[in-house]
Amino acid sequence: MGLVDxxxxxxxxxxxxxxxxxxxxxxxxxxxxxxxxxTKMVCELTLGKKKYAxxxxxxxxxxxxxxxxxxxxxxxIDKDTEAFNLVSAVFEMPKETDDEKxxxxxxxxxxxxxxxxxxxxxxxxxxEALETTQKAVGKSNANAASDLxxxxxxxxxxxxxxxxxxxxxLSGIKDESFVTxxxxxxxxxxxxxxxxxxxxxxxxxxxx
Length: 208
Prior knowledge:
Layout: H1 8-15, H2 24-44, H3 56-90, H4 98-136, H5 145-170, H6 176-207
């Protein structure tokens, strides 16, 4: 059974236990999934409403994109834990001989790259979700405007949480080119996403 198949209560219990995973990465993905789910909900509350007839095509596109992103971010909850488990598995490898130690070091570097890639991919999804959410501002059901603000806050938290998980894994990677590339791309995504989230939130505050 995957993490996404657990009840909210059971997920919270395992997250709060002494189990090393799920951890912050999976929690960040959950935050993002909650955020884009709210955007999808706002679309559901807008489609078919005469008052927003001029925006039906736009909202339908946002709805479809939100549904796709919802699935991807839910999948990311388990993917992040799976990536962490690769790192944990390395500690079980033998380290008696020089060859075994070398194999262990190689495996660890590979596992750390996977563990950094997973939250980075999350960041890409979070920014896409924020771009999608922003398109709904001012074109969707005004009675649910606050929900778009909450969506932005959840997505921003997910984005920043994913970035922390990128950073902690980059810290153990020896490949300087990999580290430089992902640090630069991650910082760009972080700025873009946080700016989007803040813009959405500030706009919503003005209208609610």
